[in-house]
Write a structure and sequence with these properties.
It is built from nine helices and 21 strands. It is α+β, with helices and mostly antiparallel strands. The chain folds into two domains: 163 residues, Rossmann fold (3-Layer(aba) Sandwich); 124 residues, OB fold (Dihydrolipoamide Acetyltransferase, E2P). Helix 3 packs across helix 4, helix 3 runs parallel beside helix 5 and helix 4 crosses helix 5. The two termini are 42 Å apart.
Amino acid sequence: MSLVADDHETAQGRSGSGRDLRLTAVTKSYGTFTAVKSLDLVVPEGSFFALLGPSGCGKTTTLRMVAGLDVPTSGTIALGDREITYDKPYKRPVNTVFQNYALFPHLSIAENVAFGLKRRGVKDTKAKVAEMLELVELGEQGAKKPFQLSGGQQQRVALARALINNPEVLLLDEPLGALDLKLRRGMQIELKRIQTEVGLTFVHVTHDQEEAMTMADTVAVMNAGVIEQMGAPEALYDNPESTFVANFLGQSNLLAGDILGPDGDVVKVSIQGTTVSIPSDRSHADGTRGWVGIRPEKVMIAEVGGEIDAPGNRFEGGVVSDVSFVGVSTQYLVRMPWGQELMVFEQNTGRRPIFAVGTPVDLSWRPEYAFLLDASQDASAGVEDGDD
């Protein structure tokens, strides 16, 4: 068994089971501004958990309170049975990896990784450092200085330096934000691999939906200091419960409709005179008005009167107003007779030519893919990309 696994098992043995991270009614205020509002949150031990949201939503403040860099205005933070709300950062079994790496330029990679152990008085660090460098696939780079490594490699060094201290919780504060797109995607896979291998609790703060959905077991979408919705990535994407989640986590078409009422295991809604069905477990609206949501890739498009492989309701009278070819798919905007433009993402299978701007088309979708949100919510909430 590896040293990482041995140490983690030993730590669990000392502390007992049930080392979940728990935030109870945690609030953080700065004067009259409340950054985090009475937050209740449980992060299961050994999970990869993502706090996702736009800049200013409270996710980084939450992470800083767990790290001990900020103190809650009220509420408690506990790790298992141990409350850590007011513990100093260095007394918590928690380590943080930041976006800027914070490596010591005058030290070698191996010395950077060993830094935390040496500060704690550990003398024989060579074997543990070697194991950490192997874990992050930098086994041959120990003698180099940080400036000799790429950005992605430097981020791996920062990760190894945090993991070598055997924290119970590793906090990741926008750790991939400084990397270019190709490196960032590669590191997403690597971070998930490492988390699975070491079995520690990872809490990842990001505004990047792809990062959250690629790596996390559970995603909590934050907005204005509160969690809008939390669950598995696919559950949040397929069945959002608010317009903010529907728009921030991917893209959505939201169509205003009159709610006609339940009919068996579906809810009937009238959209511009066409009645559509929404599964009851995907209906999150009260009252007589709502937003019918459908993801662009779930919308089927065809020439006027053409066959559509979707046993749903057909919307006629659309006209293609914009076409974007993005390789694996073509993204259309289709202006409907009532003036709204709907997004349609169609995979480029070569089955037929791409529709040109101005082409009359019909649209449809399978009822089981739609969701229903309350009309009192802002249809444009969460549309911003959240980038800092």
